[in-house]
Amino acid sequence: MNNNLAPTYQRLFGSYWVLWYKTSNSYSIVDDNFKHLLYDYLECASFDAFKSIVARIDSSLDADTIAKNLQSYLEQCNAEHGSDELLSTDFIVSKRKISKQYIFKDKAFQVNFDSDLVKKTIHPSIAHLETENNVSPSVIFDIYIESDQLCLFKNEVLVRIVPKQNYHFIQGKFAMELLSFIHDNEESDWLGTFHGSTISDGENSILFVGASGKGKSTLCALLTAKGFELVADDVSPMLAADSHIYHNPSAISIKKGAFSLLRPLVNGFDELPDMVFNKTKGVIKYLPCKTPNKDHYPCRAIIMVNYTKDSDTTLELRSIKEALETLIPESWLSPDPLHAKSFLDWLSKTPVYQLTYSDTESVTEEITKCFNRFKNH
Amino acid sequence: MKKDNNTDKITRKDAIKKMGKYAALTAVGTFVILNPLKAQASSLPPDPGGNPLI
């Protein structure tokens, strides 16, 4: 019954099943009872067959309601969510008012902006890559506003156009283009870009996730000051081929609330320029970090960050449900079934922890211990 | 795939276990559905009060 609505993949994680639906690229987390009930329903040839199974167990059960609920669940899981409307627009060369050239390793690129305001959406996080030397860029990006639409072009070909208030999609798309360029990949090679920051000890990496304000970037900045490598801040890209997290050269964005904590730990902290981006984020400093020794690292753990004033430092194992509830709604995950399978494979061998902390010394020790568990994996 | 007739051989223990399963359906929070973003985005959400581009 309704086999076309059945999940494409099912995977058990402790006491939860994670079901993946190809039509919608949705991940559903259910308990064992629910999963078996769902499969009883899917495997019945007809509603009458399901009804008779239910009646045999207990004639007082309302098979109609149960079937209706399961059907409604399956429809929700398979509902396709509208993708972005694709608009087209011609490239306008006269929008090139400000030009910046950047270099990362041997890769040179140029970004043109139509105004200081638009420049502010992209430039501060990559300002440390800017070069004054005359380089011949292999790729040229143009970002400008036309008729209230923010447009991103690559080599004069439109990549993305969004209403200007949705500029965070242009930032995300630009990050994806930049990552593909510096790592010699196509967008279709990436499994996803996780909303989280990644730190490495030179051998393995750990992905830190958590809602805005939970202290991910602050923690990563302080761990970097203590000798760890920053692999990626905010956008952590995972390649499908090896499920490794790749280096994202964007600087760490630090909010004002963390300035006093980081000032004594980061050399020249006060010399970093203050940026006022919007009222929500307030004053931000962009902290560039040393390029890690390797371009990519296997990711051995997911840590949910929970900065709590005056708390003791604790690192506790948590369920896959909590991790996915935090990670998935704010991440882009490729809808390719092979990539979804790789994502589930990676999750199945990756422990999830919650880190509660307030003290910088003890949190560094705790993370060091955590990395040591994965040594010579 | 259709289930075969092994449901006829259900034991009392299985029946009680199954009851739990059906009861679970009426409970709140037995499932969650999570949808990833359709496109790459940075973590700076649109802010009606302070969007720098408006």
General description of the model:
The complex is a heterodimer of chains A (377) and B (54). Chain A has 10 helices and 21 strands. Chain A has 377 residues and is an alpha+beta fold. In chain A, strands 10, 11, 12, 14, 18, 19 and 21 form a 7-stranded mixed beta sheet that branches. In chain A, strands 4-5-6-7-8 form a 5-stranded mixed beta sheet, with helices on one face. In chain A, strands 1-2-3 form a 3-stranded antiparallel beta sheet. With 54 residues, chain B is α+β, with helices and mostly antiparallel strands. The longest helix of chain B has 15 residues, at 12-26. Chain B is rod-shaped. Strand 3 (26-31) of chain A pairs antiparallel with strand 1 (31-34) of chain B.
For the sheet with most strands of chain B, the description reads: none
User: Biggest interface: chains and residue counts?
Assistant: A-B, 70 and 40 residues
Regions of chain B with pLDDT < 50 over 5+ consecutive residues? Answer: 1-8
Beta-strand residue fraction of chain A: 25-35%
Structural class call of chain B reads alpha+beta
Distance between the termini of chain A: 44 Å
Strand content of chain B: 5-15%
| Mass-distribution shape of chain A | globular
Features:
heterodimer; A: 377 residues; alpha+beta; seven-stranded mixed beta sheet; five-stranded mixed beta sheet; 10 helices; B: 54 residues; 1 helix; 28% helix; disordered N terminus
